[in-house]
Amino acid sequence: MSDDKQVNNTRRNLVIASCAAGGVAGAAAALPFAASWLPSERTKAGGAPVEVDISKLEPGEIMTVEWRSKPVWIVRRTKEMLEGMTSVESKLSDPASDVPMQPEYAKNATRSIKPEVLVLVGICSHLGCSPQSKPNEAKAEMGADWSGGFLCPCHGSKFDMAGRVYKGAPAPVNMEVPQHVYLSDTRILIGDDKKGA
């Protein structure tokens, strides 16, 4: 084999090896770059529906989950909590939930699909503060006729155990009930109300 042919073969092999190495390096650099275009787990959690297991939620307990960077409360209401809601209806600004702060299927006296389980965005409808739970036992602080609910510490808005606002409160409307659906007796999907989503 002549020296020219040997040089050409060597050059060709070097070009092929360089191209292959460059292609692999380019792909290795492109993968993380392309992956950065996909939404992060935090972004997906910020807007995507959230599935919640409520099997360990005892009567009278509240659990908080995050959906769209907001606290969502899930309250397992007791019989006493439900009875207390009927005794305060005359004191509420919108007892029938006429202002659409809930899906149509939650436009009822309990503002829920199942009366014993409340799903509520834990943000005051006044200026976005997070109210505190004030059980029936907080009568010394809330007044003798208090039957349980929520108090916004920022400006004093009061809400009953369905998130309905009391008359005279700075909050203009009831607290928001997000879209949700039961996937089973113990699993709720918050942020969507279509089964199988």
Give a written overview of the molecule:
The protein is an alpha+beta fold. The protein has helices at residues 3-35, 41-47, 79-86, 139-142, and strands spanning 50-53, 62-67, 70-76, 117-121, 132-134, 149-151, 158-159, 180-182, 187-190. It has two domains: 1-38; 43-190, Rieske [2Fe-2S] iron-sulphur domain (Rieske Iron-sulfur Protein, 3-layer Sandwich), CATH 2.102.10. It is built from four helices and nine strands. β8 and β9 form a beta hairpin. The radius of gyration is 28 Å and the shape is elongated. The chain starts with a helix and ends in a 7-residue tail after the last strand. The model has no long low-confidence stretch (mean pLDDT 85).
Could you give the topology of this structure?
Blueprint: H1 3-35, H2 41-47, E1 50-53, E2 62-67, E3 70-76, H3 79-86, E4 117-121, E5 132-134, H4 139-142, E6 149-151, E7 158-159, E8 180-182, E9 187-190
Name the features.
alpha+beta; Rieske Iron-sulfur Protein; three-stranded antiparallel beta sheet; 4 helices; 19% strand; elongated
Question: What is the level 1 CATH name of the largest domain?
Answer: Mainly Beta
Beginning-to-end CA distance, first to last residue: 69 Å
Coarse shape: elongated
Number of domains: 2
| Residue-averaged pLDDT | 85
Oligomer: single chain
Question: Main β-sheet: number of strands, strand sense, barrel status?
Answer: 3 strands, antiparallel
Share of helix, binned = 25-40%
CATH-defined architecture of the largest domain: 3-layer Sandwich
Trace the largest sheet across and list its strands: 1-9-8
Structural class by sheet pairing and helices: alpha+beta
Secondary-structure element pattern, one letter each: HHEEEHEEHEEEE
- The counted number of beta strands is 9
Uncertain stretches of 5 or more adjacent residues: none
